[in-house]
Amino acid sequence: MPAFLFFALLCGLLLQTHAEPKSSAPWETLEGCRLVDSPVNDGDSFLVRHEDQEYIFRTYWVDAPESADTYMERVREQARYFSIPEEQVTDTGELAKRYTRKFLRGAFTVHTRWEDARSDHNQRFFAILEKDGDYLSQELVGKGLARIYGMPTKDKWPGGPSPRTYLGRLKNSERQAQREGEGIWGLATGSIQMSGLETLIAASEGNGEALTLQVPGMEKQEVGDTININKASLEELETLPGIGPALGQRIIAARPIELIESLVEIPGIGKNTLAGFSHRIVTEDPPPPEKTVAFYTADLERYLDQEVVVVVDGVEAVEIESPSGFRAVRLETAFKGEAGGSITTYLPDEFYDSFMQFYAEPGKEFTGLLYQQEDEVVLIYRRQ
């Protein structure tokens, strides 16, 4: 057999392994994976060896800056997104690449459903990378080395949170990175992607008015609230930069919209138009903060009559009728700076004074039974 024919047949056999995307397949967990040094490696895509097989994986949820100018269209799009020069995109991408290499040093775990993540001729699959209980995607976002701009998971991976909860975690990590000027956010100070942070800061200072944001090379524009693209009225859609009545009607006709990136498939909405308002839209309402009343009551069927943990932001006495041997207080809850609602809580008489003193300082956790009392959901501290 000629050498070239043998080589072609060998390549064909190798490509048969997981060559077809299996988006409907169940999750598989690959333990003891190792990073393989390869030219394809960057911040969010890399060659991995598991046992005697090698695969290229790309992270769900996030997109790291390009580390080289091989794909200039991506570099330009990322530069527009962050409002920074193209060379700063690749500089930050190199930092992301180094961070990923460090994070994946030694053995780590890959969760995948073998969904096709191909962006060139190389076969690659979407995956969640986990090491020592931390997820690479969230760590990249928290270091300012990636944006929340990728394929989300459709459901929970083994041992992981729900997509809704994980998105909330990513958003919290991104806000923290923006506040501290981590990574690319230290360069993107004039980016419209920072407008959400400015709005959040203004709200925390009691300023409910809209802000104006000056972006280099653009006229001043008002920054409004985030819009759920699947629920917004036509009038609300028309507040987005570049969206008029015609495009607004097309967005409404295209619902439900699962991915923000898919809006470019609507005639009249190109990448530049989307980059101008993507920071102001979501495809579903943000999840309530963890360890708050809002978090548990959003899924009340699951948590009712269960002991739950809330983070107490404030406590006050309330004069309402209580069960025998109990006193009532009102708990305000919050987590990582986000308000999470208030709830009536019943305490045994003997714990009341010490409870009020202990929880006078915000940020401490409280465990209680979530209980339905007539038309109200309450918390009860059970005697041990």
Structure description:
- This protein has helices spanning 3-15, 72-82, 86-103, 136-142, 163-180, 195-204, 234-237, 245-253, 271-277, 293-297, 300-303, 352-358, and strands at residues 28-36, 45-50, 53-59, 62-63, 108-116, 125-131, 134-135, 147-148, 211-213, 221-223, 227-228, 281-282, 307-317, 326-335, 338-348, 364-373, 376-380.
- The strands form five sheets. Strands 1-2-3-6-5 form a five-stranded mixed barrel.
- The chain has three domains: 12-162 and 169-183, OB fold (Dihydrolipoamide Acetyltransferase, E2P) (Beta Barrel), CATH 2.40.50; 192-282, Orthogonal Bundle (DNA polymerase, domain 1), CATH 1.10.150.320; 293-380, OB fold (Dihydrolipoamide Acetyltransferase, E2P) (Beta Barrel), CATH 2.40.50.
- The radius of gyration is 24 Å and the shape is globular.
- A hairpin with an 8-residue loop joins strand 5 (108-116) and strand 6.
- The chain has twelve helices and 17 strands.
- By secondary structure, it is an alpha+beta fold.
Describe the structure concisely.
The chain is an alpha+beta fold. It has 12 helices and 17 strands. α2 packs across α3.
Helix and strand element order: HEEEEHHEEEHEHHEEEHHHEHHEEEHEE
Strand arrangement in the largest pleated sheet: 1-2-3-6-5
Largest sheet entry: 5 strands, mixed, barrel
Radius of gyration: 24 Å
Q: What is the assembly state of the chains in this entry?
A: single chain
β-sheet strand percentage: 25-35%
